[in-house]
Amino acid sequence: MFASILIENENDSYTARLTEVDEADLPEGDVLVDVAYSTLNYKDALAITGKAPVVRSFPMVPGVDFSAIVRDSSHPDFTPGDKVVLNGWGVGEKHWGGLAGRARVRGDWLVKLPEAISLKQAMVIGTAGYTAMLCVMALEQNGVRPDQGEILVTGAAGGVGSVAVTLLAGKGYQVAAATGRPEEGDYLKSLGATTIVGREELSGKIRPLAKERWPAAIDVVGSTVLANVLSAIKYDGVVAACGLAGGMDLPSSVAPFILRGVTLSGVDSVMVPRAKREMAWAQLAENLDTAKLDQMMVEVPLDRVIETAPKFLTGEVRGRVLVPIAPDLA
Fold first, then answer.
1. Of 3, 162, 204, 311, which is the most buried if we count CB atoms within 10 A?
2. Beta pairing, strands 31-40 & 65-73
């Protein structure tokens, strides 16, 4: 038996509670792991609160990511004692996730951690940081260079944004960090931001084309903010879009694409093939200033996860929320 967050929906009564789960109840998979750390993400918050239909089957253990030690494996690529990380693949939605003492998953979903990244660091980075790395990779694959000017990051004080700012600054880019919380300005500058942009600059009336301001951007907000970002991207610029915190709609026009040659690069982190995942984690090990990880995270024990989840939906969370499950494994 081990502690777990469990979401149930019986007779139209949606509940999330901390309980004990039997290992025998874990879903099928060829790798059993002892979870060292998990995190609380926006998607987890939606699942725990029931504010969106994230969970596809019940009961469900939430937690879209975890770092862990392999306990038992019939998968050829993993042996007991391996340090691994998991992000996405429907874990926490269709398959029991990481907010529990143990997990049984498919080995094809796992990535071995680079030696330079600890189990704890892996989850301070987490799905948010790994997604930020995929966004940076998308910009660079589309030819974005540090000498082109400031790169805009929206939702910069959140999990993806915080790591994106740090990664870009570490690679020599100047970063314009957009946030709706001006009190986070000093925090964002400590991560490497050179300019703070108020969210109100990006949430007003949408123009088909606005003044050219940035050569590239990473957007986690979507909706009106993304539309305004697209209209202000310089000729032949690139936007990597990975989030929908502001909504799923995109009230834009074709003008940025056909009159300025702007590229909108969609970034998914859930179903990415393992080879690209390994590349992202290798680049995180090489390029992320891990000394800055502590200042972008707060630890929340498993027994406070449920009460913390609603704060994501009201914009009260800064950076990353780390959930230690068995930190002694590290």
1. 162
2. antiparallel
- Domains observed in the chain: 2-112+300-329 (3.90.180.10), 126-266 (3.40.50.720)
The per-residue pLDDT for range 2-32, each reduced to its tens digit, is: 999 999 998 889 999 999 999 999 999 999 9
Q: How many CA atoms lie within 13 A of 174 on its CB side?
A: 9
Contact 33, 320 (CB under 8 A): no
Pairing of strands 2-10, 65-73: unpaired
**Which tens digit of pLDDT belongs to each residue from 213-249?**
999 999 999 999 999 999 999 999 999 999 998 999 9
Q: Are 121 and 147 in contact (CB under 8 A)?
A: no
Q: Decide: 91 and 56 in contact? Cβ < 8 Å.
A: no
59 upstream amide cis, omega within 30 of 0: yes
User: What are 241's two structure tokens?
Assistant: 């879009």
CA angle at 48 for the pair 42 and 52, rounded to the nearest 5°: 70
pLDDT(286) > 90:
yes
